[in-house]
Amino acid sequence: MAPDVPEVGTRVSLRYRLPAGSVPPMSDVVGHLREVGPTLLVETKAGDVVNVSVADVVSLRPLSAAPVRNRDIRNLEHAAALGWPGVEREWLGGWLLRAGHGSTRRANSAVPLLPTPGEHTDQIAQWYAARGLPALLAVPDRLVRISADRPTDGENVVMARHLADGVDAAPLKVTSRPDDDWLRLHPRRVPVDVLTAVVDGVVGFGHVEDAAVGRAAVTAAPDGTRWVGLSSVHVAEHARRRGLARALCEALLRWGADQGATRAYVQVLADNAPAKTLYDTMGFAEHHRSRYVSLG
């Protein structure tokens, strides 16, 4: 009897038969389902991908999501902040304050990146006021305590995956600056100096068929992990439902792997169901969430 196979993205424990004559005759794998069909693809915590024919499955059990530690969140957020740092930045206690002409909340918010970042809301508010910007905190899960009566918005799902053995994708020309075609295709008028800003890393821009554009930044976390982050992905309305977003993202991940990245992340608005579905099918899984808090 064929096993009941859960949806892509589910963490599972799977036992399967090895080829006849193998010793031992069966093996086990724990990881996230990345593809389902006649063959199941399971990605382990180490990033290895195991292919198992459904006909060889002995047992398959869904598991709860693997726990994410506070330091895992802090490492990813640190790499992401260096990959979208605005054009002016300053450390205040354990907070990294970023300013980028007021363009995008991510480039114009303070994020807690060191353990016990401390209470610095007055100083943060003053720093942004001096630049004519609203004071905004980017608050990842569990990294800082926010008063329950303070409203939040702009919830982001931070999704992550391993880049095991590189990425299988068609090559794509990736440039260090967005050209005129890239800027024309992207709907948000983000200043070029904000788009190209990166700290201790490298940034790349690609587009596919003059219809899809995206950005990738490779930076290192404090634990030494090199991450590639996808952002500014957009497909022109006339070119949608042709797989261009996936092709572009896979090509940018391959570029990131070529730059030494071993893990990847993407930050998606919680209500953007199509984007979350796309990244689910590409092997990303929810790592944590982050929200914005206004100090105004």
Automatic annotation (TrEMBL):
It comes from the Bacteria. InterPro entries: Acyl_CoA_acyltransferase (IPR016181), GNAT_dom (IPR000182), Rv0428c-like_C (IPR056935), SH3_Rv0428c (IPR056934). CDD domains: NAT_SF. It comes from Mycobacterium yunnanensis. Transmembrane segments: none annotated. This is GNAT family N-acetyltransferase. Residues 158-296 form the N-acetyltransferase domain. PROSITE patterns: GNAT. SUPFAM superfamilies: Acyl-CoA N-acyltransferases (Nat). GO terms for molecular function: acyltransferase activity, transferring groups other than amino-acyl groups.
